[in-house]
């Protein structure tokens, strides 16, 4: 798995699959030679999940300086963090992709002592601040302006739906799938990008 160019992000939790993905990202970051001259790719089709594991995936993904993140379906809630770990110019969205944003939340279940509850609340606040900072800082850097629309969506507990076009406009994505070939041609990377586009188009048609 360490030499695999394609990795897939699904549901985010404290389970085995999340741990395996983090291990694979770290292993891929240690590979110094490119795979046939192509960028490593994290494909995302995720309903979201827990903020803590999402931050861990984000941190591991950021170790790969040339990582492409590609939304092939859903990028909801906490899943946006791993997506934002993509390198500048390589956060890609398919035309049918959807984003759902809302204020970070976590259910505090079971009996809680006062100290335990305070610790949980403190952790949630820290994760919430980090979550918002990462998304807004990356989006603002991409667009060159502060987005009130994005900021409002991160404050509301209700879900806000964004399309692929919205994601590009707000700076969440740096490039849409139809702009991949133009960008690749400009950067002399056409040979490395074409196989990815062909593969994704085939998946859409199947």
Describe the structure in your own words.
There is one protein chain. The chain is α/β, with parallel strands linked by helices. It has helices at 16-29, 51-61, 80-84, 114-143, 148-153, 164-170, 180-186, 190-205; strands at residues 6-9, 41-46, 68-76, 91-93, 98-101, 160-163, 175-176. Strands 1, 2, 3, 4, 5, 6 and 7 form a 7-stranded mixed beta sheet that branches. Residues 107-111 have low confidence and may be disordered.
Strand content: 15-25%
Given the helix and strand composition, which structural class is it? Answer: alpha/beta
- CA radius of gyration is 17 Å
Return the average pLDDT rounded to an integer.
76
Note the gap between the termini.
Answer: 25 Å
Q: How do the helices and strands follow one another from N- to C-terminus?
A: EHEHEHEEHHEHEHH
Assembly state: single chain
Number of helices: 8
Shape field: globular
What about the largest sheet?
Answer: 7 strands, mixed
Helix percent reads 40-55%
The counted number of beta strands is 7
- Low-confidence segments, given as residue ranges, are 107-111
What distinguishing features does this structure have?
single chain, 16% strand, 206 residues, 7 strands, 7-stranded mixed sheet, alpha/beta, 8 helices
Please render the helix and strand layout as text:
Elements: E1 6-9, H1 16-29, E2 41-46, H2 51-61, E3 68-76, H3 80-84, E4 91-93, E5 98-101, H4 114-143, H5 148-153, E6 160-163, H6 164-170, E7 175-176, H7 180-186, H8 190-205
Helix pairs in contact: 1-2, 7-8
């Amino acid at each position: 798995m360490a030499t695999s160019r394609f990795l897939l992000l699904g549901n985010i939790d404290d389970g085995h699959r999340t741990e395996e993905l983090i291990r694979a990202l770290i292993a891929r970051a240690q590979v110094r030679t490119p795979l046939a001259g192509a960028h490593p790719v994290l494909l995302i089709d995720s309903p979201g999940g827990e903020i803590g594991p999402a931050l861990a995936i984000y941190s591991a993904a950021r170790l790969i300086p040339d990582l492409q993140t590609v939304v092939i379906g859903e990028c909801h809630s906490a899943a946006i963090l791993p997506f934002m770990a993509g390198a500048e110019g390589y956060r890609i969205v398919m035309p049918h992709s959807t984003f759902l944003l809302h204020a970070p939340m976590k259910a505090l279940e079971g009996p809680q002592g006062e100290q335990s509850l305070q610790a949980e609340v403190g952790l949630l606040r820290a994760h919430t601040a980090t979550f918002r900072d990462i998304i807004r800082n990356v989006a603002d850097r991409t667009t060159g302006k502060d987005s009130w629309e994005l900021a409002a969506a991160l404050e509301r507990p209700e879900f806000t739906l964004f399309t692929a076009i919205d994601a590009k406009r707000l700076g969440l994505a740096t490039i849409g799938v139809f702009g991949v070939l133009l960008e690749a041609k400009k950067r002399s990377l056409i040979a490395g990008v074409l196989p990815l586009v062909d593969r994704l188009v085939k998946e859409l048609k199947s």
